[in-house]
Amino acid sequence: MLRFEPEFFRKRNREIDESTLRVISREVRKDILKMTSEANSGHPGGSMSATDIMVTLFYYKMKHNPDNPKWEERDRFVLSKGHVSPALYSILARCGYFPLEELKTFRKLKGNLQGHPDMLKTPGIEISTGSLGLGIGAAAGMALGLKLSKISSKVYCIIGDGESQEGSVWETSMAACHYNLDNLCVILDNNNLQIDGPVDEVMSIYPVIEKWKAFGWHVIEIDGHNFKEIKEALNEAETVKYKPTMIVAKTVKGKGVSFMENRAEWHGKALPPDLLKEALKELGEIV
Amino acid sequence: MEKASLRDAYGNKLIELGHKDERIVVFDADLSGSTKSGKFGKVFPERFFNMGIAEINMINTAAGLATTGKIVFVSTFAIFATGRAWEAVRQMVCYPELNVKIVCTHGGITVGEDGATHQALEDIANMRNIPNMKIIVPTDDIETAQVIEKVAHTDGPFYVRLTREKFPRIFDENYKFEIGKGYVLRRGEDVTVIANGIETSFALEAAEILEKEGISVEVIHMPTVKPVDRELIASSAEKTGAVVTAEEHSIIGGLGSAVAEALVETHPVPMERVGTPDTFGRSGKGWELINFYKLDTEGITEKIRKVLERKKR
Hints:
The complex is a heterodimer. By secondary structure, chain A is α/β, with parallel strands linked by helices. Chain A has one domain: Thiamin diphosphate (ThDP)-binding fold, Pyr/PP domains (Rossmann fold). Chain A contains nine helices and seven strands. In chain A, helix 1 packs antiparallel against helix 9. The interface between A and B is medium-sized, with 35 and 28 residues.
C-alpha cells in the first residue's frame, strides 16, 4: 500500500505521476465500497465519481498537514456534496489524518465518521456539510477570510450537479465573483445523475458552463477521470486573477465498477455482500 | 423615561470593537442602513461586506469566514435571518458551533407599517430550537452595547434580537450584563413578572400602578432567553406563587415557553403569558400595534390580575 510521510503533503504540486494517482484512487474506491457495505448505508455512486478529483487534490495539488490538521498555511477543502463522505474519509485516512482501521466505524454509533462530514468529530474536515447548497458558501467565506488574513492558501470545493439546483449555489456564485475570490476553485462533479434519475430529466441545470461563465467565473471543462486534465485544470485555476474558477468535470457515477457505472440506483445504497465481492474483484482486490 | 435606539447602539459598539479587534468582520444583506451595521462599514470598509439580498449565502459565507479565525457579525431583519436562512443557521453555524453572531433588528410587532411579512413574531422560537444557539433580547441601548461586547468575546453562535423602534432607557452605566442571568429590577411578594425587550419597561410601569392597589409585583428582566436563568425563575416563583411572562413575540416558543418549561420542572405555579397570540401581525404604527395586541402596560396588568385570581383558587 502507498504510504507517504506527512512532510510529503506540505508543498503544492508534488511529484506524483498519474499511474500512482490511479493506484491510490483504486484503493479509495475499494474503501468506499467496503465502508458503505459495512455500514449497509451511505453513498457509493457519487463518492466514486468524485474520487479521482479528490485524490488529485489531496495527493498532488493541495498543501496540507496530516500531522497538524489546523496548520495555518494549509489549503482548504470543502466537500459541499457532503454525502460522498466515504471518499473523503478514505483519503484523509490514507494521508494519515487518522488510522485506516477507523473507516470501519463509518456511520456507526460512537464512531467519529458521521454519515456526513462533521468538523468537530473528524480531523481534516474543514467544515461540516451535508445539506446541499450550503458548503460552497462556506468555501467562499474561507476564501474571503484567507484574503483578509493575507494568507496565500487556496480553497477547493466540490459541488454536485444535482446540488446545483439549490438557489443558494447561485447566491454564492454571484458573491464569490463580486468579491473577486480568485483563491477559490470549485469543481462540479458532473455525473448527471441524482437520486431520482438523470439531472436533465429531474431538473435540468444545463447549459451549466454558460451559466457559470455568465456569473463571471473562469470556467474550465475537463474529463473528471483523466488525471492529466484534472492536474492541468487545477494548475490553470491557480493562475487566474480577480475571479474564482469553476472546473466542470464530466464524471461517471459509480466509476470503476462496471455494473455500478451510470446507474442512479447506487446513489445512496450500499452493495450487498455478493456484489461487493464482485466489485472488489473488478478493482483488483484478491479476495 | 428617555428613549434611545438599540440599533444605533449596536452600530456604534461595532465601530468600537472594530478599533480594538481586527478579527471583527461584519456582513449585511442590503439593509445596512436600517440595521446600522453600515456604520461599521463606513469606518472599516475592508472588513464590511454587503452580501446583497441573499441571506442563505450570507450565513454560509459567515460560517466559512469564522473557520479562519474571524469574529463575524451578521445583520439583517429578524425574519430573514431566522426564517429564510434558518437551515443555514442550523447546519453551518450551530452544528459546527462557529463564531457567528447573528444580530438582527426589526424583531417583533414594533416593525409597524411594513406589516405581517416583516414582523418577526417567531424569530426567538426559531432560534431557540437549535442546539448550541444562545439568544439575547436586550431592553435598551445601554444593555445592547454591553450585549454586543459580550457576545463578541464569547465563543460560539449567538442570536441577538433588536428592534426598529427606540425603547425607554432603564439601565445606566453601572449595569453589568452577563449571559444567562436574569435581573430582579423590583422586589415583590405577590406575583412575578418576567420580561425582556420593550416589555421590561411596561412591566415596571405595571408594577408601579398595581403597587397603589396594594399588589406587590416582582419584576425580573430576562435578557437571555437561552440558556434561561432557571434558578431565578424557580426561586421567585416559589416566593410569589404566580408568574406572568411578557415579550414582544408570539406566545409560542419564546420567553413564555422557556419560563413555562423551567417552572413545570422546578416549581410549578399559575402562569399567564403576554405576547402576540398565534397569529400574524398587521400594518399600523409600532406603538399602536403594541396596544392592539395588548402588549402594553395595560395588557400586563390584566394578566397579573388574572394570574392572581388563579392563585387564590
